[in-house]
Amino acid sequence: MRLRILPVLFIATLGAWGPHAAAQDKPPLRILVGFPPGGSADVIARLVGDAIREDFGTIVVENRPGAGGRIALAAVKQAKPDGQTVIVLPSGPMVLFPHVYRKLDYDPVKDFTPVSQLARFQFGVVSGPASNVKTVAEMLAKAKADPKSATYGSPGQGTLPHFMGVLMEQSTGIPFTHVPFQGGAPANNALLGGHIGYKFDVVSETAELHRTGKVRIIAVTGASRDPQVPEVPTLKESGVNMEATAWFAMYAPAGVPQEALARLERAVSRAVKTPELRERFLKLGYEPIGSTSAELAAAQRADLARWEKPIKSTGVVLD
Prior knowledge:
Elements: E1 10-12, E2 29-33, H1 40-51, H2 53-56, E3 59-63, H3 70-78, E4 85-90, H4 92-95, H5 97-100, E5 112-127, H6 136-145, E6 151-154, H7 160-172, E7 177-180, H8 184-192, E8 198-202, H9 203-211, E9 216-220, E10 245-253, H10 258-272, H11 275-284, E11 287-288, H12 293-314
Parallel strand pairs: 2-3, 2-4, 6-7, 6-8
Antiparallel strand pairs: 1-3, 4-10, 5-8, 5-9, 5-10, 5-11
Protein name: Tripartite tricarboxylate transporter substrate binding protein
Keywords: Signal
Family: Belongs to the UPF0065 (bug) family.
């Protein structure tokens, strides 16, 4: 996912005035991001940080990229559980990595406290020039008749788009051949060049190519249609019993006192539900959520269970 924003360290400070003056007596709220400035997680973290600055006084967003977000997660795991250090990250490290990595130096359930699910997003099943199909039914019929045509690309082995294809196989009983690339851009070039038939991609990343006719989004993976491409049916509408989304969320270290957690949860949930932040999220292609801590914990448990079978069926294990 690629979003452009100036790569600057974000520090928002309020003066000591009004009911929020007490916030100035506390240390800054540190929001860690395990990805470089300008990426989706970074943008989400900065938008949320700006929206809750009146509740916390000083907000500092720290980018600690590397290892798919695991470096930042390690820092949060080791941080003092006082409610002053949190992380904003996509769902992969919390629901996919435990099934993928041979050695993971954190437990996504025991080592962190869920704060709030910030936003959800879904993927599109994207048909390229090589396949030239317009519906999921056509794709499945062609895959049965010509198995060599049933190829799909991803940004790499072990990524969410990779396992979206595996879940599609299990949901339809029709095999597809996974073709991993070194990143999303090479996979996209292969699709446009006719070297692979399909790709699973975040809808916001493919919507413009779909609108210009260079590729076709033939279905979306969520429970409802995506407002960016409202004419595109869901997989379930297309006859495939499959539903899968990804999300961004905020977590704190394990052991955060209930009072500090309640303060974080209340501030974040309220901010995400404001018209201003909802509009910003929607323009970026994300569905605003602003859940409670308990709701995020439930979503994480559900996705941990959802992805276990398709991931383990591939035999993919990374170090």
